[in-house]
Amino acid sequence: MDLDLTRGSVTALLGENGAGKSTFVRILAGDHRPDDGSIAIEGTRMSFQTVAQSRDAGIRLIAQEIADAPTLSVAENIALGQLPNRFGFVDNAAMRKLAQDALDALGADLPLDAPVSSLRLGERQIVEIARATAGASRCLIFDEPTAALSDAETQRLFTLIRRLQQAGVTILYITHRLDEVFAIADRVCVLRDGQVSLNAATSDVDQATVVTAMVGHAIAAHHDRYSFVDAGAVPMLAVDKLTSSTFFDIDLSVAPGEIVGLYGKIGSGVPELASALFGATAYQSGTVQLAGELVKFAHPAEAIARGVGFLPADRASEGLLRPRSVAENLAAPSWGRLASGGMISRATEARAFGNWHHLLQVRSRPDGSEGITTLSGGNQQKVLLGRWLEAKSQLLLLVEPTRGVDVGARQEIYGVLRELARQGHGILMASSDYEDISEAATRAVVMVRGRVVAHLTQDEISIERLTEAAGGGVHA
Asked: For the residues of 357-394, what is the DSSP string, one character each?
């Protein structure tokens, strides 16, 4: 791979999951060693054996997966790696100033003394960005920085990137959102199967050209469109006046074979509602019915036992069993059913994985014996979806199902959801990504500040309509 990054430029690095993007940037960050080739900064060849050496050379990586210290404060996390000291002790006043200056540059207002574990995912991402941008940097590498950010936070990040660009800082920007590429990047470099398939000025290419370079062929819009036909069946899920501290008077239903898109930006209450329906968080009032029967889950285990599956927004910390294999991750909720004499064998788990390997198009060994962390983000997401199919879950609550997933894998996931709907599964897809809703949902419910503001039929769903409703322009 050859790539030149000029001072003060913004280069978008694109490619499907598994194309080699993360390996490449981790070599630049000193986290991996290359087998061959060289890295030069301003003409001087360098070899990074550690992350510290890369940082000393002015390269900072904001990784896709959150890598903070949860028990430390916001200020301490931002200053990690460059803690100011005085007489051998941490200089708290200087540390707080460094942290506040970094947050101010981002236009972010976070409590410096709060433990990072108390922040929501988007706020923790801001802390990661603030840590990387604090102090002197020559090159900043952003790996999916906006995946957990609101629209307003994303725009503030773009403003900061332009400011850094003007100051001569070089930016390498990894994203799966093609609209971001044309909004922020000067150049676009696409990797496919570990090799550069496109390297051009952004002004010289269009979105279709970039997608073709990523996947090797053009992707048809609205492939395999699925329309739900209401047969008058009892709703699989019926919610009436559900209320908590983050959402209010929510009414919605999901029928067998229906894909309901629950759309809302950060602060809308969408992920909190999905979590409450799974029994992971409590609600104060209202009712929930499954197939016409009143339920109130005190714990996710009760929801799982009643055939409810849940895909969390943050698969790394809330979904994956990271030390375990692919097959173990898929079989985990079904261990009780799959066990014989209180024991479960690798062969049994491999058979369970084999039940779904082909349907979900998981790119892995057929027996799922490799570690789950060796798979790309899109394939990890498919495995997490497969665990609920093996558990025979009929109602699927999916939160941000395509977060951190490339354009090709997105289409594959949408296709899987359509096939599951055809088989009679009820799907509630809670997402802040309008593409999820416009591509896969048969009906949309839009939330703003904890309340439903719009119900859209499949024919009414469009990016413009969703954006207008999420901005408060349409009311139920």
From this structure: HTTTT--S-TT--SBGGGS-HHHHHHHHHHHHHHTT-S
